[in-house]
Amino acid sequence: MSIASFPEGFVWGVSTSAFQIEGATSADGRGPSIWDTFSADRAEACDHYHRYSEDVRLMKDLGMAAYRFSVSWPRVFPEGTGKANQAGLDFYDRLLDELLAAGITPYATLYHWDLPQALEDAGGWPSRDTAHRFADYAVAVHEKLGDRVDTWFTVNEPWVAAFLGYGSGGHAPGRAFAAEAFTSAHHMLLAHGLGVRALRAAGASKAGAVLNISPVMTPAQVSDLGRALSPEDAEAVARIDALANRQFLDPILRGAYPADLLPVIERAAGLGHVHDGDLEIISEPIDVLGVNYYTPLVVQAQPSEPADPAFPGSAGVLFCTIPTAVTAMGWPIVPNGLSLVLRRLSEEYPETELLVTENGADFVDVVTGDGIHDPDRISFIEEHLRALRTAVEDGARVRGYLVWTLLDNLEWADGYQRKFGLVHVDFATQRRRPKDSALWYRDVIRRNGLTETRPRRPTLETVA
Ligand code: PNW
């Protein structure tokens, strides 16, 4: 049996986030977050707050080397400011002890979208003060957990948090104003930079950002639709790439907003929120860039198209559906988008080490008495791992891969119907059962590689 192996020391694991699994939303003094307000009465999630031991045991049995979790800000600062709530921090203390006893390396994310409601009431991310409160919070968490966590991530996917939270309103806090989305994005970048500085000053050994990076393609690039790539298409691709990707990459890794994005920001929000010195803070060097990859954005020029509120400034750009297999959520499955992203990042930002911090998919699983069958998830992960391996062969510096996610969980505005887990959760009983994909992933980890060559899902021709 031939094995497509991965580099020695390649880190295998899973990612989760606090609000999506913990539940226990008022335990031990936790305050409300914007997601409690936005999706009231659904927050028991996986009751991980009480079942973390079982969940760590599951990860151990599956052979996970690393676990990326997020800390719930409103557990630590129920009112957003003031004195840290030790009872809330104690939960992560217990979790870390359990992880380390199981031989699993913890990666901690500080902000995975659960802003304390009190900070939203005081202005939320459109307010600059929130970035400073984030730095205070980073210090408090590091003080308690810094002896056992050596890799820290600041803000998860600022594009989603800023542009779905304050631009389209599809995510908490449900506001829909382009100006607020841009100022929120800047303040999340500032929070990242202030957080990295604070973590370093406190002695953290590795700190980084997690960005949702999508390759942006035109239909002419991903398939032959009989339409040549026009200069207008190329401009549409560049505009969406600036909004989705370079808006975050360039300030963090180059200390400047992309020149082609500045007029777009200025038209929507002015530039008064970008203070002198901010970009210097935001570009504080990082050790690792977390890459979340799910699906590409596919666009072409279409003059009559109105702007999409999640992409202010996108008038004249059509977001296209492409004839490829999709997940249950309807997200196109394009594995070599991951190769493109990893190659591009290692070419454009060669100093930065990469870690795939999220990749995964929701499917309709077949639940039977003898197991949970999810062949589509196995194919999805396998194809993305082959794509990752290709990028590594081409020289990309990728230190590991974390599946999104360990457990079926609370998928934000979509609630419980979306199943991204390697492990099935029966929400009536909280019973956990590993799916076929979990067992398959365990074997990949054991041999540090893939074996059988499965028939590949027919994919579109791409530029990769
Ligand atoms: C990521 N989009 O969210 C998050 O980091 C996870 O918490 C989430 O559960 C997972 O992916 C699956 O959705 C995204 O609209 C949410 O492009 C929305 C988008 C991308 C990522």
TrEMBL record:
Reaction catalyzed: Hydrolysis of terminal, non-reducing beta-D-glucosyl residues with release of beta-D-glucose
GO molecular function: beta-glucosidase activity; DNA binding
Catalytic EC class: hydrolase
Protein name: Beta-glucosidase
EC number(s) per entry: 3.2.1.21
Active site: 157, 358
GO terms under biological process: cellulose catabolic process; regulation of DNA-templated transcription
Keyword Signal on entry: no
Residues annotated as binding substrate: 20, 112, 156, 294, 404, 411-412
Family: Belongs to the glycosyl hydrolase 1 family.
Species for this entry: Nonomuraea cypriaca
One cellular component (GO) term of this entry: cytosol
Keywords, ordered alphabetically: Carbohydrate metabolism, Cellulose degradation, DNA-binding, Glycosidase, Hydrolase, Polysaccharide degradation, Transcription, Transcription regulation
Keyword Chaperone: no
